[in-house]
Structure formats: structure tokens, C-alpha cells
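G., the chain you wanted modeled:
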Amino acid sequence: MAKKEITLIANDAELAGDITFASQFVVNGLLRGSTIADTAGAAMTISPNGRVIGDIRVPKVVIHGKVKGTVYCSEHLEIAEGAVIQGDLHYRVLQMHMGASVQGRLVHTEPEKSANDAVAKTEEPAPVGITRGQI
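Predicted structure as C-alpha cells:
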């Protein structure tokens, strides 16, 4: 089993700038910037005291604190009781608890289809046959 690395912004810390990670990211303090994780299974947690001002593009996100920005979540998005979000949420699976506040649009996204699936659905076989009078 691979070891999961954890990146942490502590309660008394403020980070200004964009961040990219591949495993786990926990925000207990303030992050001013965009967050990106392209690795499947990568997860971000914003604690009750955590605040993020910027866009989030992470497969799994759990929000207990405050977010001001757009969230793009390709796997699972959980919004806990007491969370406050100002921005649109793009999600595949959404779990929202009572007491959460969202000021923005909820946009359900479908998983991306592979190139082979797209070709198979768009290509239809051409009609074959001979009509009378043609040789």
C-alpha cells in the first residue's frame, strides 16, 4: 500500500499563491489561491476554521469551513454542516449536510467518456445494398 503524503496549512498560517498536490491536502488556516490535484483519489479537506479564496480543482473535497471561489470536483464533494460557500459547485457526486450554506450554482457533471466510446456512438454503419436499375 502506497504511503499517503499530507500537506497542511496550519491554523495560524496564511498561504498566498496557487498550490498543486497529488495526495492529501488539509487547510486549517487561510489559502489565497487556486488548488489543483489531477491524481485520481487526491483529497482536500477544509476544516471548520479553514478558509479558501480561490478556485478548487480536486477529485475529492470535504468542506467544513469557508470557500469563496468555484469548486470542480470529479469524484466526490461533501459539504458539511456549518460550511459556507460563495461560488459555483461542479460535482459528480454531492453530499450536503443540513446547515450548510451555498451561494452559487450546483452543476452536475457526467464522467468523461473515453475516445472509443465517443467514436462507437457517433459512427453509424453506411447503408449497403443495390437498388433496382444499378449495376
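The chain is about 5% helix and 40% strand.

Shout if anything looks off.
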